[in-house]
Amino acid sequence: MNYPDAFAVAPAGRGNVQAGKSRSSYSLPGLILILAFANSGLCLAVEPLADVAFIPGTIQPLVAISIGKHSNIACVVDTGSTVSVVNSELSRGAETIGMPKVTVANGTRSMPLVRLRDVAIGNARLKFVDTLRRNSSWFDAKVKAPCVLGGSFLDKFTVDLDFDANRLRLYQRGTRLADVADVSLTPDSILKGRVSSGHLVVDAQVGRITVKALIDTGWIQTAANEPLLHALGISPDGPQVETGVS
Q1: Cα separation of 77 and 86, whole Å?
Q2: Fewer CB near the last or first residue (10 Å), C or N of the chain?
Q3: Model pTM above 0.85
């Protein structure tokens, strides 16, 4: 994702941010994650362009969107994905504009990049959105969502993922944090984010170790790499490690 400026916010009285304990924010009661994108000048309008409830049944933030003539499409809101992904049915007829190499969990592969003519959530509407096309078997069968809403859509807005109210709100890009949050912000409630290879990264504390943590709302588990586990004294075959957990 192409974030000029980004923050993760937990307003005072709503919960504590301890990014090192969770790769995403589902286990943090009351957390509101706001991604604010810098802009020239100030945006005076604070009413959201879209204010939609999460679809229940999964711990991933799932919302209903429209893609062209298709409406009420369940889509995962994924801050860990730099580009959106749709299945072949939803992208049928879309112009193919390239075959980029994409890094996935098990390596790198070429995928068709297509341009959707119209994508909308409420009154938040974009024309000509670039997305990757994948067949239906690529998507997690446990989550009935034929698309992933990533950076190619999200970074055009200020994004408020409210895990307290279970809602997604999209504001005009450049909307200020203070105009979005309904409570006063304290220094302890703001994590300054950075962009690393298109991903939102914040400083976090795991035990006594300071680390860089990726904010990824599309991932349902907390994850640590092998060097961090080693620094924490956890071995791959140690009693703290469970395998085969879905």
Answers
A1: 12
A2: C
A3: no
